[in-house]
Amino acid sequence: MAEKPIPVVVIGCAGKMGREVVRAVCAAPDMVLFGAVDRSHLDEDAGELAGIGNIDVPITDNLEVTCAMVAQERQPGVVVDFTHPTGVYDRIRAAIAYGLRPVVGTTGLTPSQIDELADFADKASTGCILAPNFAIGMVLLQQACLRAAEYFDHVEIIELHHDQKADAPSGTALQTAQMLGAMGKTFNPPSVKSTEMLSGARGGELESGIRIHSLRMPGLEAHQEVIFGGLGQIYTLRHDTTDRAAYMPGVLLAIRKVLGLKSLIYGLEKIL
Ligand code: NAD
Q1: How many CB atoms sit inside 10 A of residue 140's CB?
Q2: Does 12 share its domain with 140?
C-alpha cells in the first residue's frame, strides 16, 4: 500500500520564502499542504496567493489550533518556518510540544536559543532541523572554505542581501565563520596596529578573528563572498542566490529527513 503523504504546515506562507515553499510542497508527490499560517492575508487561499490556484487551504494566524489538528492525524507532521526572528523560538517550541517536527529557515536565533531548543527537542525525542541556508551551493562553498582555511590565515566574509532582511550579519555568514572558527585557528593576525576612524569600518569581529561585513540594498537577493588572503595571492569563493527556488531541494530534503530524527540538527550539510 502506498504511504500517506507527509502533512506539512507552512508558517510565514504569505512571505517570499513561504510562497515558494507552498509551491514546492504542493508539487511534491509525497507531501500534502495541511495548513498555512501567517499574520497577514488571513482567510485567503494559500495556493491562490502562491500563484498555483485554489488548493482549499485558507491562511490562519492560529498556529496552535493548526498544530493540534495535525497532531490528530495518524502520522507525524512537519512545520516549516520562514518568518521573522521575533517569536520564532516560541513557535518552534510550540510545534515540538504538539509533536510536530520543525524545519526552520528563519535566521536570527541566538546561540543560546539554539542550545535551549536542542535540549527541548532532545527531551521530547523529536527531530528538528535548523538551517541558515538551504541552498546546496552554499554547503559546497562552506566545505571549500574549510579546505582553504587549512592553508590561509587571513579570511574575511562579505554578505550582501536585499534591504528587507531583518537581521545582520546573515545566519549563513555567522555559520560559515563559526565553522572556520571551530578549526581552532586564530585568523587575521594583525600586521600593524590599526585604528578604526569610522565605527564599524572593519566589520564585526568574532573571537576567532574572522570579520564579517554586511551590505543591505534593493536589487540584491542573497550573496556571500569569503575572501582568503595569503602572501601574493587572494582566493575568493562566492555564492549567489538569484531565485528562491534555489532553496527548495534543501527544504524538501529536510522535510523528509526530519521525520527520522530524534534531536535537533543545525545545518543542511548534516543531512546531505
Ligand atoms: P518575508 O518578510 O517575505 O516573509 C515573512 C512572512 O512571515 C510574512 O508573510 C510575515 O507576515 C510572516 N510572519 C512574520 N511574523 C510572523 C508571525 N509571528 N506569525 C506568522 N507569520 C509571521 O521574509 P522572507 O524573505 O520570506 O524570509 C523569511 C525568513 O527566512 C527570514 O528570517 C530570512 O532571513 C530567512 N531566509 C532563510 C533562508 C534559508 O535558506 N534558511 C533563505 C531565505 C530567507
Answers
A1: 14
A2: no
List the strands of the sheet with 204-205, edge to edge.
Answer: 204-205, 211-216, 154-161, 222-230, 233-241
**Cα 172 to ligand 1 centroid, rounded to whole Å:** 15
Q: Is 247 in the pocket of ligand 1 (CB under 6 A)?
A: yes
The number of folded domains in the chain is 2
Considering the domain boundaries, does residue 1 fall inside one? Answer: no
Q: 119 pLDDT exceeds 90?
A: yes
Q: Choose which residue among 13, 49, 67, 84 to substitute to test ligand 1 binding: the one with the highest number of ligand atoms within 8 A of its C-beta.
A: 84
For residues 93 and 99, what is the distance between their CA atoms, to the nearest angstrom? 10
- In degrees, rounded to 5, the angle at the alpha carbon of residue 228 between the alpha carbons of residues 224 and 234 is 110
Q: Is 21 helix (H, G, I), strand (E, B) or coil?
A: helix
* Residue 36 φ/ψ, nearest 5 degrees: -135, 120
Which residue type, as a one-letter code, is found at position 179? M
pLDDT tens-place string over residues 81-107: 999 999 999 999 999 999 999 999 999
With a 6 Å cutoff on the Cβ, whether 40 touches ligand 1 is yes
- Ligand 1 midpoint to CA 134 (Å): 14
Q: How many Cβ atoms sit within 10 Å of the Cβ of residue 53? A: 9
In terms of residue numbers, what domain contains 14? 6-130+245-271
Residue 160: closest CA among 214, 210, 204: 214
Give mean pLDDT, residues 140-163: 97
Task: Tell me which residue has cell 527541548.
Answer: 120
Q: Which residues are catalytic?
A: 161, 165
Residues 172, 195, single domain; the answer is yes
Please work out whether the CB of residue 16 comes within 6 Å of at least one atom of ligand 1.
yes
User: Over pLDDT 70: what percentage of the chain?
Assistant: 99
Condensed to tens digits (0 to 9), the pLDDT of residues 253-267 reads: 999 999 999 999 999
